[in-house]
Every structure is written in C-alpha cells, then in structure tokens.
Amino acid sequence: MTAELALRREVARFQTPSLRRSLFQVATSFGGFFATCGAMYGLVDVSCWLALALAPLAAGFLVRIFIIQHDCGHLSFFRSRRANTLVGTACSLLTLAPYASWRRQHAGHHAVWNNLDRRESGADIYSSCLTIAEYRRLSRGGRFWYRATRHPLVANVLLPPLVFMLLYRLPFDMPKPWRKERRMVHLTSLALVAMLIGLGQLLGYDRVSIVQLPVLTLAAIAGVWLFAVQHRGETIRWFRHDAWDATTAAMQSATCLRLPRILQWFTGNIGFHHVHHLNPGVPNYRLQECHDRIAVGRDIPTLSFWQGQRALGFALWDEKRARMATFREAARA
C-alpha cells in the first residue's frame, strides 16, 4: 500500500457524520444568530452603538452557518442527501449564497485547486494566481488591474459584501446548461426579497438596515478571508498538471490555519483546510481530531492568525524558485 493510499484510508475513518453533533451545531448556530440579532433589534431604540457592538458576534454565528452550508454542499453534514439539501438551502437564506449554484461552483474549486494548467476551469480570484512570467507579459493596464483586484483591502474588504449581496442575486457567470442552479438563484433572490419586505414591514426598514447590513458585511469579509488565506502564503505550492495529484496538493497547497479557540469554534474548524481537501466528506466537527491523527511527522503549511494577514500579499507563483511571491518581489526578480 502506498503512503498516499494509507493516508486517505486513515482520513476516511473520520468522514461519518454524527446526527447528534450535526443537530447540536444547527441549534447553537441558528439559535445564537437569531438571539443575537433579536438583542440588536431590542437595543436599536436604546442606542445604535450598543446594537452595533453585537454585530461581530452575530457575524460570527453567520460564518458558522455558512460552514454548515459548506458541509451540506459536500454531503458531509448528514447521511441523507435530502437532509443536506434542506439544511443547506435554509442556511443560504441567511448567508445570501444560493445553495445549489454555490455548491456546484465550489466543487469546481476542489477539482482544480493549485493546478496551474486548470486554473480557468472552476477557480476564482481567491484560490488562483498568475505566475510571475504571466504577470510580466500583461500590459501595464492589465498588471494594474490584477494588482488592484488582489489588493487585500479590495479583494478582502470591499468585494466580499458586493459578491454576497449583489452578484449572488443573478446567475451572471453560470453556464446555460446549469438550469437547476440558475433557477435556484432566482428563487433564492425572490425569497430574500420577501423576507426583507416582511422584516421591514414588521420592524421598520431603517432598523433592519442598521442591524442586518453590518452583520452581513462583517460575515462576508470574515468568510472570504477564511477561504482566501487557505491557499495563500509563502510555503504554499502550485503544480503543473502532470505533477499534480490530489493528496500531495492537499498537504502542500492548503494550509493549517491556527486560530484562537473561540475563533476556531465560530469558523467550524475550517482552518484545518488540508484535511478538508484530503477528504471533503469529513464533517467540520471532526476535522481537528483527524488532523491530530495524521499530522505527526508531516510537514504541513501552518499559519497563525497574524501570519494569515501577511499571507494575502503572496499573489504570484514563482516557477523558477518554486515558491509564492509578492508583487514587490516580482518587481525585483
């Protein structure tokens, strides 16, 4: 038995979901989110600032709900496909990310991550990059646009709320054969409009804006940062297709993001991203125990929270030195 096969068999032991743990996670995540938002609505009339002080907490619960949706999309949260679909769809009405289309697009990411020859068949700006040679061949305007769209303030602060609130409302980038996914985008948007009107009529549109917009904005920023940093950093590797295999890519092209315990809870252990890529069927609440089992003696790219901030600057692949590079390094090389 090869080492790769042995590793995958070891990880597969952790992919069975627990109904009790899944239901408990649903209850605490949805319950925490609704309770915190309810408290915010109650505080708005007392002080907007007191209400906004709870926005990061509500956003944390919303990120956790997105992780549940993410697991449902991989059919790893429940044994039943129908249960995964129902809960994942319910999550999408809070996260604003249409379940069916996001699931299919995300599956594309898992098929091609850090494969230099398949970057255009399912990747996005948060899990893709140019080589230094490709970047230099761009026109001056092309290089400016590439740098601007990947600047941490643009890619990780300005764009995420726009993606979740506006771009996900229309199937602008989906192939026409994706009829079911395109239809579900429209149905999700209609449901969100109905919910917004209902909340506005019940609580007042100004109060809904004061509460929901900051929460959605913070959650979008945090969620995108989490997924962006998982494939960034100086030690992350990219491979040409003939040298790419899923096991090696999982262990060398996805990070282990070490977060404080409370942030690890809110982010559903997604920091153990190398385990997730080894086997997307492992539910989020089993990722750490799986990591603890397989990490001994293995060199896994690891980032602290603060190293994760710096990792966003590595946006180019240096094929000559086989390492990630920053734009400043590309200018000097």
Automatic annotation (TrEMBL):
The keyword Transcription regulation does not apply. InterPro entries: FA_desaturase_dom, Fatty_acid_desaturase. It comes from the Bacteria. One of its GO terms (biological process) is lipid metabolic process. Keywords: Membrane, Oxidoreductase, Transmembrane, Transmembrane helix. Residues 49-294 form the Fatty acid desaturase domain. Its EC number is 1.14.19.-. GO terms for molecular function: oxidoreductase activity, acting on paired donors, with oxidation of a pair of donors resulting in the reduction of molecular oxygen to two molecules of water. The chain crosses the membrane at residues 23-43, 49-67, 83-102, 153-172, 184-204, 210-229. The keyword Transmembrane helix applies. It is an enzyme of class 1 (oxidoreductase). One of its GO terms (cellular component) is membrane. This is Fatty acid desaturase. It comes from Oceanibacterium hippocampi. The lineage of its organism: Bacteria, Pseudomonadati, Pseudomonadota, Alphaproteobacteria, Sneathiellales. The gene is des_2.
